[in-house]
Amino acid sequence: MENKPAIGEGALNKVKSKSKARWEILRNAIVDKRLVGSGDITFIQSVRRFDTFELFTRKQCTCVLKPDKRSANKKKPQCSWFSYICEDIPFSKEVWIQHLFSDVNLKDILSFNNTGNVCIWPAEEVLAYYCILNIDQFHFKSVIELGGGSSSLAGICIALNAKSPKQILLTDGNKRCVESLEKTIEMNFKNKKNINISASSLLWDDVGTYQQHKNAFDFVICADCLFFDKYRQSLAETIHYVLKSSGKALIFAPRRGHTLAQFVDISCKIFSSVTESDHYCPAIINKHETEQLNNDSYDPEIHFPVLVELIK
Ligand SMILES: C[S@@+](CC[C@H](N)C(=O)[O-])C[C@H]1O[C@@H](n2cnc3c(N)ncnc32)[C@H](O)[C@@H]1O
């Protein structure tokens, strides 16, 4: 008879609490009577169980706001802007990001593409860190971020840290995200008139929203956008359309079931080169190993961002 290794009580409890947490989230989604695809389910599982690799130090702005006399909330209002500093990389500049919601529910998360309004997802944080670490490739180049959410942290970091970038365009399909991106640009670049940075609404499944950008960009960057079952094909086609010949896309996303693999399959039919990497940066690997050891809620399958590089 095969000898199976005995599973200790601690490990058993860990497995039980993970599956209980997952089941509760799924049960809520079902109770919410929403139809969700398999990609959405892997996304729901990750929501708020693990939210940062702590690659940036965040500090809330301490400016004093006047209380709103009409509001029933008598609490002292707090500024919604946070400074983000990447202390590991000494030359990196401070970024200002607005936090939109203090509380969210599943409805907010699942209703058409409010996912970018919820928070900065760990993949965006990793993308931003990776871009600052490899900033040389972006000097004098044009960069578009797709599905940047309400922060486009990575695109903003490139704009602040690269030498004379030719153009930075931050995009998302959700109107609230685009409004927030416009405010973020205003906040970070109000005294820097000689930078070409803007935000616009761009929907992967509507070529009318991006036809003016054909073969326009040296780089596409994108974080945590591969789990939408409905849009994987159109996302890959959009990337191909907006890239210059030999342009490169840097995409970070967790595996989330088959979602990343399916995107890679689609991309192999469209791009001249497609590579996938888990070991793209020693600092992130360290963080990942520490979380695996110390954090019960951390599940690499849905939280660890893999790098997919596409060359046109
Ligand atoms: C999980 S969020 C990621 C946001 C940001 N990159 C981050 O990681 O913090 C996915 C983003 O994709 C956007 N999105 C989803 N479907 C889209 C579509 N068809 N066209 C354009 N953007 C879309 C959503 O609005 C959302 O901001």
UniProtKB/TrEMBL annotation:
The protein's Enzyme Commission number: 2.1.1.60
Specify whether Methyltransferase is a keyword of the entry.
yes
Where does the chain cross the membrane? none
Q: Which InterPro entries match?
A: CaM-Lys-N-MeTrfase, Methyltransf_16, SAM-dependent_MTases_sf
Q: Which domain of life is it from?
A: Eukaryota
User: Keyword set for this entry?
Assistant: Cytoplasm, Methyltransferase, Nucleus, S-adenosyl-L-methionine, Transferase
Q: What class of enzyme is it?
A: transferase
Compartments (UniProt record): Cytoplasm; Nucleus
Chief site of localization: cytoplasm
- Protein name, please? Calmodulin-lysine N-methyltransferase
| Lineage of producing organism | Eukaryota, Metazoa, Chordata, Tunicata, Ascidiacea
